[in-house]
Design goal:
By secondary structure, the protein is α+β, with helices and mostly antiparallel strands. It contains eleven helices and 15 strands. The strands form four sheets. Strands 10-9-12-14-13 form a five-stranded mixed beta sheet, with no helix packed on it. Strands 1-3-4-8 form a four-stranded mixed beta sheet, with helices on one face. The protein has a four-stranded antiparallel beta sheet with strand order 2-5-6-7, with no helix packed on it. Strand 3 (89-94) and strand 4 form a beta hairpin. Helix 1 (16-26) packs across helix 6, helix 3 packs antiparallel against helix 6 (118-125) and helix 8 (253-269) packs antiparallel against helix 11 (373-386). The radius of gyration is 21 Å and the shape is globular. It starts with 8 loop residues before the first strand and ends with a helix.
């Protein structure tokens, strides 16, 4: 995630070479797995190698994020959270660039609460392998990346989006503590990169994804031309591409509808709109179907704190500590569904109110994304209710 300019605290960061050595050491036991993954065809992903126009930039990001995580490892937050945890700005000076870390202690606490080891986070985002560029159908000018192990999703943000995110961060953390199975995307860090003379978290697994959708519950500008038949690309489609289809969740449908109400009510109270329900579908193998066979139940058994598989929540455990995906995962009778609410930083201010007025005149009788937060939340919940069974 991009962020505002770095603040007053400065430290000299370790060199990129040091980061590379540590990342290589801590991830050595998984190096073979990553090399095998590198040989797989990546649908809609492009490796940012030495010849790529973004290679130098992503190398800076990797070195900077490795050093930033090292700070939280050397000085982990202790005691109860404070206001300073959410307002701290740390600037680390590297050769040729500076990386700022915003609200570092607050995000370190959040990662720890999710069961994410800082060593794993550092190894994934550091110089252990090239980032992947993600092919997006978004109309924004944001850049999208995946970590080299495809475990973490990185996205650039505008300054005002970062300001909104940080302003709401305490309430966001409180909501996740109150609703540990929330569909809200887990935001794991906010950084700024300033080059001498301008990050991020979570997407789909690599294999067997058949469809991807970005849903806003409206129709204007919500169609993506699908990739030609036989193309290796799997694009992120939109609302109009989903017409005539349903999500078959079986007994887990009621949980999803209730969690959508809780999460969108939270976003409504923050005066936020224009977020998306991100979805991906994966066909279940025969041995993954039926009680006790699904990924959800196998993971629930291994996670600390799960007392009984009779509890409804154990069917809906987020898999960040145990699998390379922090979207919510639900198994239906035939398919596995990856679901999450993303892009949580657009505030319904004056600019959006004027945009709403213009679109009302431009698209009479049609639904579009820029509406009041109350209407936006209600409409997206209605979409989920109408398209699930």
């Amino acid at each position: 995630m991009a962020a505002p300019s770095p603040g007053p605290h400065e430290v000299l960061a370790p060199s990129p070479e040091a980061g590379h050595r540590a990342a290589t050491s801590s991830s050595g036991r998984r190096g073979l797995l990553w090399r095998l993954r590198d040989k797989q065809s990546r649908l809609g992903l492009f490796e940012i190698g030495p010849g790529h126009e973004l290679h130098q930039l992503t190398c800076m990001m990797q070195a900077g994020l490795w050093a930033a995580t090292q700070v939280s490892m050397d000085h982990p937050p202790t005691g109860l959270p404070t206001e300073e945890d959410f307002s701290e700005v740390l600037t680390q000076v590297h050769e040729g660039f500076e990386l700022g870390t915003l609200a570092g202690p607050a995000f370190a606490r959040l990662r720890r609460s999710l069961g994410l080891a800082e060593e794993d986070y550092q190894a994934a985002l550091g110089p252990g392998g090239p980032y992947l560029q993600f092919l997006s159908t978004s109309k924004s000018k944001a850049s999208f990346f995946l970590s080299h192990d495809q475990r973490f999703f990185l996205k650039t943000l505008r300054r005002r989006e970062v300001q909104a995110l940080l302003a709401h961060l305490p309430r966001y953390v409180q909501h996740l503590q109150r609703h540990p199975h929330s569909l809200l995307a887990r935001l794991l860090g906010v950084h700024s990169l300033r080059v001498a003379q301008g990050k991020k978290s979570v997407f789909y697994p690599t294999g067997r994804i058949s469809e991807r959708y970005d849903i806003k519950g409206c129709e204007v500008s919500r169609w993506v031309e699908p990739a030609p038949e036989g193309s290796p690309l799997v694009l992120v489609l939109k609302d109009l591409n989903f017409q005539g289809k349903t999500i078959n969740l079986g007994p887990q449908r009621s949980w999803l509808l209730r969690q959508m109400e809780l999460d969108t009510a939270f976003l409504r109270d923050l005066n936020v709109l224009d977020y998306s329900l991100l979805m991906a579908f994966q066909r279940l193998h025969e041995d993954e179907r039926g009680p006790g066979s699904s990924l959800i139940f196998r993971t629930a058994r291994s996670m600390r704190g799960v007392q009984s598989l009779e509890e409804p929540e154990t069917q809906n455990r987020r898999l960040l500590p145990d699998a390379p995906n922090a979207l919510h995962i639900l198994d239906g009778p035939e398919q596995r569904y990856f679901l999450g609410l993303v892009d949580l930083t657009t505030v319904y201010g004056l600019r959006k109110r004027l945009e709403h007025l213009w679109k009302t005149l431009r698209y009479p009788g049609r639904t579009f994304s820029t509406v009041s937060p109350t209407r936006y939340a209600r409409r997206l919940c209605q979409w989920v209710e109408a398209h699930t069974e």
